[in-house]
Amino acid sequence: MSCNPAIGGTAKGHLVREIDALGGEMGKIADATGIQFKMLNTSKGPAVWSPRSQNDREWYSKEAQRRVVHQNNLDVIEDSVAEIIVKLNTLKGIRTFLRHEISCGAMVLCAGTFLNGLMHTGEKNRVGGRFGEAPALGVTESLRSLGFSSGRLKTGTPPRIDLNSIDLSKTEIQNSDNPPIPFSYHNEKILNRLIPMYLTYTNPATHNILEKGFDRSPLFTGRIKGVGPRYCPSIEDKIFRFADRDRHQIFLEPEGYDTNVVYVNGFSTSLPEEIQFEGIRSIVGLENSKMIRPGYAVEYDYFPPHQLRHTLETKIVAGLFLAGQINGTSGYEEAAGQGLIAGINAALKIQKRNPFVVQRSEGYIGVMIDDLINKSTDEPYRMFTSRAEYRLLLRQDNADRRLMRAGFELGLIAQEMIERLDEKENIVEETIRYLQSTTISPAKINPLLESKNESPILENDLLSKIIRRTNIGVWDVAQVVEIENIKTNLLRADVGQQVEIDMKYEGYIRRQNEQILRFAKFEEYIIPEHFDYTLISSLSTEGKEKLHKIRPRSIGQASRISGVTNSDISVLSIFLKQLEGR
Known about the structure:
The protein is α+β, with helices and mostly antiparallel strands.
């Protein structure tokens, strides 16, 4: 866990659930090492509910390493890649700094923030991918020599302070959900000891102190060339951009059970060390705090993702896959989603099997990869629920129903998990059928309705209509159901929630499914891989340029490319139909 000791969050939690449904490890490790769990956005609709955990940093690292080292048929070699060996646009292997050559037919390159990494604190900078670790040198130059274009991005991290130096009585305690909801479908409950986090705020004095260092901030003096994440700005950027606000949230997050290190979430910065220290001490509860390590910014190279296919294989070199921050994304969850898809497709390529792609309508992983390729990115890409046009279907609670069977077909999900999924699906369907076909009398249901400030019914009504009411949930309906197994079904957490959402949002879900079917024909309308867009004179100049650059595989993909207009799509469709008719 190179930066914050947390997994999930808004939309990121959706990605973790999808990774788990496809057979990935992130959710399992998060559950095993979690010290606090929260379901975010529960005051809003289920489409945006997002799980998040705080984790013990050292424990997470050890658990991840344990799983890697004990994986059958996997060799782990500790070295640095210096050069990528390619012949006739096909990957042949790598050469390491220790001069070893390793032949391979497929490779996934996950470089994080290490490619020519440069760390900044005030006017000081030093080479490195993160604190205490050297940068990766040579890879960028090797890829550029093969014809790849690269760019420069920036991210940052906050100071760490000593837990024992904080006056926690002046902060707001942030307790865990209890009982916590696991990330992984393999886990029924979390048994770890749960600990609180703490909330405090900056104030005008803090802002005045930090502004004193702006003239020495690499962010404002131009020493940082890379573009930072718009949606996760540094504290100095927040003060500069939101000058009208007199405070910003600061979450104090202990990094584990047996450490005094606290991550100061919300205070990411590259200001001079003494300014950071003075600013921290102006915050309520942190007046006597000790700074263990200052925050810093890190610049690194990335490769704009229009150079990728949806499998995350590069278009220039067959067999070379890129995943994570090298593609311009920000965050562990985005990186893990890409790493899983790239790894799956690297293995499938070696086995000469068909590639695996998650569609936009199937998962946030699909939305992310499609966005990256079609829109590319000149700033770190972060996942948001608003990026998904089918977000009511792509909820965090139903990732197993959407993707687990695909994970099973790939050999990443055990038979036992599919049997559990089938059982759940059958119970959900049985329960919905019962609610849609069973009526209840006013005498039995009105006391419940009135207690929930809902208007009473005057004649027998279907239970399905009762459950669609705003203030009525499955737990309420379970109290008036007379058939014991249906009552048991409704009270099962994994079943009751699915039943309630499917019924309350039935109309919206049906409309989104209809939209998917309508747009599917555009996804199936394939464009020849080496199609010459210069043949179509009536395409807009920008449309022609973007289509040539990204080389979409379907009319559906072409329609999502930034700069390609509806008129361009119409012209392209007509031209391709005429071409087919020749």
